[in-house]
Write a structure and sequence with these properties.
By secondary structure, the chain is mostly helical. The protein contains 14 helices and two strands.
Length: 283
């Protein structure tokens, strides 16, 4: 075992000479993700800040116009930028497996190649949440405040429920030798067997967005608080990508989600050593 490489049940990871614990608990997943991001903070920070500032500026403009259509457009704008940022970070993490630097430009190009599968995944939740925004903006006065809020809340919770597997799907889609079909199968299996763990990890990674959401709700999503929410949500994507990639790397070899991997008949420990590695060359 090389210097800086740590083995454990379900994950092997090298981090430039800094040991990373096996990601078996939420604390370990968070610590490993922070270690990975800190190694190339300039690249991941650049990806996150570009997306966050873009989302905040566009959300500010649309919210300032303040029409039902412009308010509704905020939803797909933030969703597309957030998923694009998440996918770019996942592609950057994948590049580190081959000892490459997580170049933001090359990673964005790789994310664009997979854009059709990503966009197909966000259409249902975006439609549901956009409908909620439009109903509350256009018909809030006619339907009454509580009825419009109830309809909006139902649609928003439905959208969140549908969108919950998306971060794991993105991590699986950019895993080594993964196809869209493999990614969908892995996502389904992981969410079926470890949903609580994945949701808890998302809750930690999206902490800034949750705080911003509470502030925005208190201010009824005014112009500035909408921009704050957009910024906080998108800036959380690098940490979301890192944590989901680590969880996927730990679980994928054990779930037997695809016929191709079942046919390989790889022993569990051998599979974990190969398929779950989020490598960095020791410098």
């Amino acid at each position: 075992m090389q210097a800086g490489e740590q083995k454990g049940s379900g994950i092997t990871m090298r981090t430039n000479g800094a040991s990373a614990r096996p990601s078996r608990t939420l604390a370990a997943v968070f610590q490993d993700a922070a270690t990975v991001l800190r190694q190339d903070l300039s690249e991941y920070g650049y990806i996150g800040l570009c997306g966050a500032f873009g989302a905040a500026i566009l959300a500010t403009i649309l919210r300032y116009i303040d029409t039902p259509i412009s308010n509704t457009l905020i939803v797909p704008v933030i969703a597309i930028i957030a998923v694009g940022t998440l996918a770019t970070c996942a592609a950057a993490l994948e590049r580190t497996q081959d000892g490459l630097q997580p170049d933001s430009g090359q990673s964005a190009a790789e994310a664009m190649v997979r854009a059709p599968w990503l966009l197909a995944r966000i259409v249902p939740p975006v439609l549901a949440m956009g409908t909620a925004v439009y109903v509350t903006s256009a018909y809030g006065g006619d339907l009454g405040r509580w009825i419009s809020l109830a309809i909006g809340a139902l649609l928003v919770f439905s959208a969140i429920y549908v969108a919950l597997p998306l971060p794991m799907y993105v991590a699986a889609l950019f895993a080594r030798e993964s196809s869209p079909r493999d990614a969908a199968a892995h996502t389904l299996a992981i969410m079926a067997g470890s949903r609580a763990f994945v949701l808890a990890a998302l809750g930690i990674a999206l902490g800034p967005a949750e705080i911003a959401t509470a502030i925005a709700l208190l201010a009824r999503f005014g112009t500035m608080t909408t921009a704050l929410f957009a910024f906080a949500f998108v800036i959380s994507m690098p940490l979301v990508a890192a944590m989901m990639s680590l969880i996927h790397a730990r679980l994928a070899p054990w779930i037997g989600a695809t016929p191709r991997r079942q046919a390989q008949s790889v022993a569990p420990q051998q599979g974990s050593n190969v398929a779950t590695r989020l490598d960095r060359h020791v410098r």
